[in-house]
Design a protein that fits this description.
alpha/beta; 11 helices
Length: 241
């Protein structure tokens, strides 16, 4: 399968501190590629490095064209949407205003967004800052999905959300992935098992594993070694919240 996004020897720094050491991987043109790893290993920083939000070196190719020398707004215009960690909605603007600001095309996908998130249509005139965390996450996802993007990069979409909302966000991402590939940073292995076709594991700013999602998720010893997570404990938490 040909790669839509290719990352080679990516390094990224923030205020002179190295946050991504040497990351290389590919994202195919279909399905969900999940980026996994312990907290603080450089997963979110990798996404920001790809987008040029952090100073970076290395080579990033999108649909055959180099984008690592392009400014962030040019990268977004090429068809890469970014859903940031912690949602980052404009709290003083309404839901509708948040989405309108994000729309880049003459005919935004309002029907698609409202079909995925009916609640956003009902709360169109409500200020985003008065929404719950789950509703704000819906706004953040909708801002990306309102355009016909060619790749979604989604950072920790279920972080801090109640189990019911985690399920709703998972359903929305599953639906979105049928029409656009997704590069997903996520800690919840239940969500990863549901959505991901492939995984990239990062440790200490470097890629330490790539491969089919099932190959990793069906191997408790490898999960423990690479992620520091016991699948038995994870399953117990899911069964007894």
């Amino acid at each position: 399968m040909s790669a839509l996004l290719t990352v080679k020897n990516l390094r990224a720094t923030v205020a002179g501190q190295q946050v991504v050491e040497d990351v290389s991987f590919e994202v195919p043109a279909t399905g969900v590629t999940a980026v996994l790893g312990r907290n603080g290993v450089g997963k979110s920083s990798t996404l920001k490095g790809i987008l040029g939000l952090y100073d970076r070196t290395g080579e990033v190719t999108f649909d055959g064209a180099r984008i690592d020398r392009e400014p962030t707004h040019r990268i977004v215009q090429s068809g890469i949407a970014y859903v940031p960690e912690d949602r980052e909605v404009f709290t003083m603007l309404t839901v509708e205003e948040n989405l309108t600001l994000a729309a880049r095309q003459a005919q935004p996908r309002w029907d698609f967004v409202h079909a995925l998130f009916p609640e956003l249509a009902q709360r169109a005139k409500q200020r985003a800052g008065t929404l719950s965390g789950g509703q704000q996450q819906m706004v953040s996802l909708a801002r990306a999905l309102i355009n016909d993007n060619r790749l979604l990069m989604v950072d920790e979409p279920t972080k801090g959300l109640a189990p019911k909302i985690v399920n709703e966000v998972g359903e929305a991402l599953a639906e979105a992935s049928t029409s656009v590939p997704i590069l997903l940073v996520e800690q919840n292995l239940k969500v990863i098992k549901r959505l991901a076709d492939r995984v990239v594991v990062i440790d200490a700013g470097r890629v330490v594993h790539t491969g089919p999602a099932g190959e990793l998720l069906d191997d408790p010893d490898r999960i423990q070694r690479l992620l520091g997570v016991s699948t038995e404990a994870h399953d117990t938490r899911e069964a007894h919240p």
